[in-house]
Amino acid sequence: MHRNSSSIDHFSLEWIWYNEQEEVSEEQALQKTLQDPFHFVVIEGQKVASFIGKVLQNGQSKPICQLSCGTLSVFHLPAEKLLLCVSEELDPNLFGQITQRMSRWLDVAENVSTVSLQPAVLYKGLTEHEQEKVCFIKALATGRSVLGDIGLIEAPNVITGVAAGVASYRKFGGKKEAAVYGCYLDSVILDSVSSEPILRLLKALGIPCADRYELKFKTSSNLYL
């Protein structure tokens, strides 16, 4: 891995690039994507990195860089004209700093979307139908239209984390507002059932994903893989 020393500033976070020998060619490919309209997507939540690693391009895609905090990585999908940021950061003190670190992409992206995986118990005002679901999706009412028949996030519920930072950055920066989605789960451990609506959403956002996610369980040690 290669640390981009030019990125170090008072935020004390820096981008660490993978495959130092390929950094120049990857940076050139990235710059080409940035010159055309592209989609910047942020996905965040507990254990989301493992899930994305398995379903993104059927597990064949690798991140191009990560932040030095170790909880956020970026995938570049040039064919789809897409940058995908995956975050498991939980420290509220870093949300603003991380958003600033992504500002060079947020400033020029044609479209920005965020997807937050949250425990369903945190959502206030669940309907009986939603209480029976292992996963349901809501969206913030923003300047961009939401997908399909996804309902709106209603007060007093809010979106937090990196997603909130990204949405605020776009809104107050005078850019086209981000599309913000909350995926509310009965368990932070995704399985083939709870992941189905999430995969549908990701595909609708133009992210090349597997049709199905299978959680492997190792019976001999009672560990999820």
UniProtKB/TrEMBL annotation:
This is Proteasome assembly chaperone 1. GO terms for biological process: proteasome core complex assembly. GO terms for molecular function: proteasome binding. Keywords: Chaperone. It comes from Anopheles maculatus. One of its GO terms (cellular component) is endoplasmic reticulum. Belongs to the PSMG1 family. It comes from the Eukaryota.
